[in-house]
Here is the input.
Amino acid sequence: MNTENHSQTAAFLWSIADLLRGDFKQSQYGRIILPFTLLRRMECVLEPTKAQVLAAAQEHQNKPDQVREHLLLRAAGQQFFNASPLSLATLSDTQTRDDLMSYVQSFSKDAREIFEHFEFDNFVQQLVNADLLYQVVQRFAATDLSPARISNFAMGLIFEELIRRFAESSNETAGEHFTPRDIVHLTTSLVITGQDDKLKPNSIVTIYDPTAGTGGFLSEGDEYIQSISDKVTVSLHGQELNPESYAICKADMLIKNQQVSNIKLGNTLADDQLADNRFDFMLSNPPFGVEWKKVQKQITDEHKEKGYNGRFGPGLPRVSDGSLLFLLHLVSKMRDPREGGSRIGIILNGSPLFTGGAGSGESEIRRYLLQNDLVEAIVALPTDMFYNTGIATYVWVLSNHKAAERKGKVQLIDGSQHFAKMRKSLGSKRQYITDQQIDELVRLYGRFEETAQSKIFPVEAFGYRRITVERPLRLNFQTSPERIEKVLAERAIQKMTAPAQQRLIDTLRSMDASTVYRNREQFSKLLKKSLGDHDIFPSTPELRALLNALSERDPEADICMTKGKPEADSGLRDYENVPLGESVYDYFEREVKPHVPDAWIDESKTDALDGEVGIVGFEIPFNRHFYVFQPPRPLEEIDRDLKACTDRIKQMIEGLSA
Here is the structure.
């Protein structure tokens, strides 16, 4: 079925919403259209074996529920059944609601639950109150959604189209429920291409999506493997937070004959309901830049208590963006490389590439991924690719079973120019990637060669050591009126009694106000002597406060010494990022010393993991590696343009005044 055809079907189903106008808010249309579309699709899927199921229901009506359910599933030839003689077309016009609810209750358990997640009962009652239920049922009964006309894959697209319209009409973000199919297709192709050893005949392959939405990634993965391999069984697994998206995903899995118990409802980060499972392929488009404050306690507890035995051992990103938590979650579900390992495709925005300096949670997560050689490739996508945002996004491809030539290397691919303009934009989505462009990007990845669009780096290239460069503190001292004024602002001085403060100020005023001292030790002795002569013996904090108020930075002054060592000036403190693998001392002698001869490295700042001087950081400055310098135009050319412009303005002014 082509795209136009599925769009027409979606448009027709959506047009049924015209009946609801006036009685329902726009934001409620989808809550009615989606479950009815599901119901009609399930009815059409079950149609060919309906007579056998009814006969079996009659024959086995007295058997225990579990046995009866098993026999009816076999009669239906599906993962679900409906044992009611009714259908949408045969519901009565006088007791439509009772008939409809009895019909829905006659589904097998998994199918029945789908309608509960939509709160179907509640919306059916609202349709009764508006006297619209029978009309809506009639419209759906007349819509042909049979698998012979619309494949499972196309039906998935129809659901996505309906959700997108539903989201637009209620100002929701459709992007939270599903990912555009071109991006899904590209990501799936990158992850599954060249994996023939996993796709041998009669093998079972598992695919997992921790942010399953309506199941687009799972369907595409299944479709892709079926199209390139023979006799491979694909087992789909996922978890989803939104009850309606979950219901659609679950219905999709039922219709595809998938084990529906592998699709879970709930927050993946806080409560991983497939905790013991490991998967061959994992595909995910987690929400961009979404904070994880709600589940902060569970995640922080897991990080502290379980460490590397849990999912978040390497570190935690800032609370405002949980994308890297999903990435760590997926890594924790990789199969042992000795059992063939796993591959991951995850779509992230730009921040996981570079947010967070050395020692931060984000940097430590990147360090873990890169030093364990899990990152295989990162592909930059064009902007304006998603329904709810136009930002730059990237597909990360990870593997713990890299081909020999990829070991210790990361491939960056610039796909930002691979796009075509859409005839009509859908939300923020104004561009899409054509099938031909997807093939080009997959080939760029597969060839693993250096080109203008494909760069290959050793893992270490993204690492650096941040060293702390200190410079000595140089201060001059003076008992000028302005500086004495500042003494009273010091907290330690404010704690003194008023008479003691007055005596102190009087003593300072009696000292020579014109001399500027450029040696702290010398001034300190003089100050103590003057105060002692007036029977004032300041405590250490008070003396520190005095020296602070009476001093100013002065590059000409002597270095302030403490215990025989120069004291560092925190105001002049600087940091240098030394490429990983280079000696920090060689770098310092070459890059820092010539400019600031009195500087030194603070050797107390060492890395928590390797104990060496300097804190290790990792970042992937993607755009810097693809930046092409464009020289500015010659000055004569710019002057000529400016002159032409001013001449034109002159003429216009003259024209006005003529």
